[in-house]
Amino acid sequence: MSKIALVDDDRNILTSVSMTLEAEGFEVETYNDGQAALDAFNKKLPDMAVLDIKMPRMDGMDLLQRLRQKTQMPVIFLTSKDDEIDEVLGLRMGADDYVKKPFSQRLLVERIRALLRRQEAVATDEVGTEPETKVMERGHLRMDPLRHSVSWKGQDVSLTVTEFLLLQALAQRPGFVKSRDQLMDVAYDDQVYVDDRTIDSHIKRLRKKMRSADSDFAAIETLYGIGYRYNEE
Question: Contact 161/115 with Cβ under 8 angstroms?
Answer without folding.
Answer: yes
